[in-house]
Structures are given as C-alpha cells and as structure tokens.
Amino acid sequence: DSGVTQTPKHLITATGQRVTLRCSPRSGDLSVYWYQQSLDQGLQFLIQYYNGEERAKGNILERFSAQQFPDLHSELNLSSLELGDSALYFCASSEGDRGGLNEQFFGPGTRLTVL
Amino acid sequence: AQKITQTQPGMFVQEKEAVTLDCTYDTSDPSYGLFWYKQPSSGEMIFLIYQGSYDQQNATEGRYSLNFQKARKSANLVISASQLGDSAMYFCAMREWNSGYALNFGKGTSLLVTP
Fold it and tell me: For the residues A8-21, what does the mean pLDDT come to?
C-alpha cells in the first residue's frame, strides 16, 4: 500500500459526460501528479500540483482540468468524454516538487470506461 | 522523440534465474534520475529502484539492481533469483531536473516467470 488513495476504482460512463476523479496523497506529500495509461499512448504525464498551485503541464487535453485543495487532495475533471478517453488514470504524490530523489508513490488508479 | 526506449516487449525467465530488462534513454540534461516501476496484473505501480545521474555506484535494492552505463545512456534492470510473483509489466522512467517535474515512461516490458 503506497499510502495514496484514489476514488472511484472503476467508472463507467457515456460519451459526452463529465466525471471527477479524486486523489488523496500520502501524508506529508505536497506534490500530486496525474498520469493517464492507455493502450495506444502508454503512460503519459498530465499535470502536477504542488501545495495547491499548478506546477507543470504535460499532454493534458483542454477538456481536462485539475485542482489541488487546501487539504492537499486533488481532483481531475474530465468533460465531454470521448471513447478514446477510456484509460487507467493514476495519481502519484511526492514530498517536494523537484529536487533530489523525490520518489513518486502511485495510487491504485481509476479505470475509466467511456461507452 | 522517444526519451525512454524499452526494446523488449516481452521476456520469459525461469524461476530462480536472473533476468535483465533493457532501458535506454535520451537526454541532454546533465541532471536526471532513472526509475523502474513494476505493474502487476492488478494494475498498481510499484516503485522498485532509482539511479541518479551523478551516482557513482549502481543502485541496488534487494533482488533488484540497476546496471547504469552513463556513456551508453542505458539503465538496465537486473532481477536476480526470479520468483513467480515477479511476473508483471516493468516500466523504465526518467525525470530531467531542468525541464520538468514529471516522469517520462517507456512502453514497458512484460516479464513472465515460468516454473
């Protein structure tokens, strides 16, 4: 158990809908990262937050947005869903934002299926 | 351009044997870190081992060791005394200190340990 929690574990929805994925980082970790794992794209970095502020952006679509709240949990919002958004979405957390090892601990993931 | 290349889509190894999973990387950043993660069929991402670009010695963690050849830009994972529970996907990832905070992942290698 990495200490990172993600809810829900599974999500099935229809095209055009909007969903929210939730992540709670390990106790004491200030950084949260979101990754998408799909069969065709592999594991891709979406976005990072550090202590409530957006710190880095990767291949995140405009239909997707995220935020980190004062209690450090984070939410990833996916809207106007398409079939191609079906994937495993991981949240990871680390202590700091870039220096040193800063090992990222991954949550169990949310499997999103868009029908 | 692909920053992390894992050329072995699938590997077989017999129980108790050692196996090497290949990883080459591409960066011009002198400061970077290399990570290996294991993803069993259950889906979670498990951190295995880390090597920093300035580390003089190859990293080791239990049965895992990293064969770091900086000049060749390779960071191969060696698993000694393979166990059935080692069957999983293995991902090599890189973090470049000066150009981002997130991990760039390779496509992964699927390892099957046979009795």
Answer: 97
From the list B44, B50, B107, which residue is nearest A109 (CB)? Answer: B44
pLDDT > 90 fraction of chain A, expressed in percent and rounded: 78
Q: What is the pLDDT of residue B2?
A: 75
Task: Please report the pLDDT score of residue A103 as a whole number.
Answer: 78
Mean pLDDT along residues A35-56: 92
Q: Which of B35, B44, B102 sits opposite A45 (nearest CB)?
A: B102
CA–CA min distance A81, chain B (Å): 23
CA–CA separation, B115 and B87 (whole Å): 11
Which residue bears the tokens 């991990």? Answer: B103
Which residues of chain A are within 8 Å of residue B97 when distances are taken between CB atoms? 98-99
Separation CA A84–CA A72 (nearest Å): 29
